[in-house]
Write a structure and sequence with these properties.
Layout (H helix, E strand, L loop, with lengths): L4 E7 L3 H10 L6 E8 L3 H11 L2 E2 L3 H5 L4 E4 L6 H10 L3 E5 L20 H21 L4 E4 L6 H13 L3 E9 L11 H4 L3 H4 L2 H19 L5 E9 L23 E8 L4 E7 L7 E8 L3 E7 L6 E3 L19 E3 L5 H5 L1 H14 L7 H19 L5 E2 L4
Parallel strand pairs: 1-2, 1-4, 2-3, 4-5, 5-6, 7-10
Antiparallel strand pairs: 7-11, 8-9, 8-15, 9-10, 11-12, 13-14
This protein binds nicotinamide-adenine-dinucleotide.
């Protein structure tokens, strides 16, 4: 079969835009022509473009006219308008996690600690409805960039569930590290919440996905989340927190610890931790306890490689693993961190969907259920953990 050529635009020129571009170089199922980049910070866009030999566009619309797909690598607050602009022109939108959210009332001094969380739930559900409506009208699709779904360990677990007809009883997982780099992340008005959405969306999406897989394998229909109880905390903002410089501690109005307890419609459960208070490198894992097997998916770190380094300085030019505080002593260098994390597999899958219509694992419905669960969880956390029902899509 002759390879199709897909014309691409990158929106945003920061961290995510950087790893998306690296993954584009590895796509093999289609040809990829990166037409250009657009970012609100034009200096950022120019240096990103120059480094990669592509053009920096002055407007989103101008770039949209030239491409088949855009990669939405902006802070979450901008996902909805950009994705809808693409869908209205029948262009695919690869949207980074989280799909959308609630970013306040527009006031500069909006405070994420004090507003009623039902506002966040109502507005984020309305945002989801607008995106899904635009997708329904469009010839193109939302491709939800949740890399955990494409991580090889999660896909292997998918195979085990599908082929053995497993009943998944309890899923528990975590994404944690010592704090995100993006300055905007510290403010609810840009991020739509704290760590519960910023990191919790990863293991939560994987749990929702695996229960969907199980339901389809066993009964031809996905098993959806029904209710959630949650707690959130702002540990680094406690008056008694002693900052030793290892954990980011400049959050303005967001949570840095969260726990979601999700009950599915079949009565089974998932427990999802997310935090920004963990030293020792990124900690991303998911366990599945089923009626016929038990699996531990170690996304990062894992024991593919273990190295002992007696002197910190020896490894000064060696990348070991995301967010590690030291390279001295024993460590688990990831020999191909992107591969274990699912980034290249995700982009490859998206380009096959765009070019050849291959079935998509990370649909807009999965992304929508993730958002709906998280904002229901914020309502629950406001009530110190009372159970809140989840609307599904
Ligand atoms: N999947 C993952 O592992 C992962 C990792 C990091 C970030 N992300 C996601 O990627 C997205 C971007 O995060 P980041 O860390 O790259 O942020 P960043 O701050 O590093 O970069 C954001 C970029 O978006 C641009 N931008 C902001 N508003 C814009 C707008 N309205 N229109 C066009 N450009 C705009 C900025 O100029 C900047 O270049 C977020 O949704 C984040 O959650 C995902």
């Amino acid at each position: 079969m002759e390879k199709k050529t897909i014309r691409t635009g990158i929106i945003g020129a920061g961290f995510a835009a950087t790893f998306h571009f690296e993954c584009l170089k590895k796509v093999h199922g289609t040809n990829v022509e990166v037409e250009g980049v657009y970012a609100i910070d034009t200096d950022h866009a120019s240096s990103y473009a120059k480094k990669r030999g592509i053009r920096a566009y002055k407007s989103l619309e101008e770039l949209l006219d030239k491409v088949d797909v855009i990669h939405v690598c902006t802070p979450p607050v901008a996902h909805e308008p950009i994705a809808i602009a693409a869908l209205e022109r029948d262009k695919f939108a690869i949207v980074e996690k989280p799909l959308t959210g609630y970013f306040g009332d527009g006031s500069d001094d909006f405070n994420g600690d004090t507003f009623p969380k039902t506002d966040a739930l109502d507005h984020s559900l309305a945002s989801i409805e607008r995106i899904l409506k635009a997708e329904k009208k469009s010839k193109a699709k939302i491709l939800y960039a949740e890399n955990w779904i494409y991580a090889p360990s999660i896909q292997k677990e998918r195979e085990i569930i599908e082929k053995t007809g497993a009943q998944v009883l309890w899923i528990y997982g975590e994404e944690a590290h010592s704090g995100s780099h993006a300055t905007t992340y510290a403010y609810w008005k840009f991020s739509g919440g704290g760590v519960m959405i910023g990191k919790g969306c990863h293991p939560l999406s994987a749990a929702l996905y695996l229960k969907r897989v199980e339901g389809i394998a066993r009964n031809g229909k996905p098993i959806l989340p029904k209710a959630v109880s949650a707690r959130t905390h702002a540990i680094t903002r406690l008056p008694g927190f002693e900052d030793k410089g290892h954990i980011r501690a400049d959050y303005h109005d967001i949570d840095d610890f969260s726990l979601m307890h999700v009950v599915f419609e079949d009565g089974t459960i998932a427990d999802i931790f997310a935090s920004d208070i963990l030293v020792g490198g990124i900690h991303n894992w998911l366990q599945v306890s089923a009626n016929n097997h038990r699996t531990v998916c170690n996304i990062n770190p894992n024991t593919a490689m273990q190295t002992y380094n007696p002197v910190e300085d020896y490894f000064k030019d060696i990348y070991v693993v995301e967010k590690t505080g030291t390279k001295q002593g024993w460590s688990n260098p990831s020999p191909d961190e992107d591969w274990f994390t699912g980034y290249p597999q995700e982009i490859e899958a998206f380009y096959r969907t765009i070019a050849y219509g291959d079935e998509l694992e990370t649909t807009s419905n999965l992304a929508a259920d993730c958002i709906s669960t998280i904002y229901s969880a914020y309502v629950s956390a406001e009530k110190a953990g009372a159970e809140v029902p989840i609307k599904t899509f």
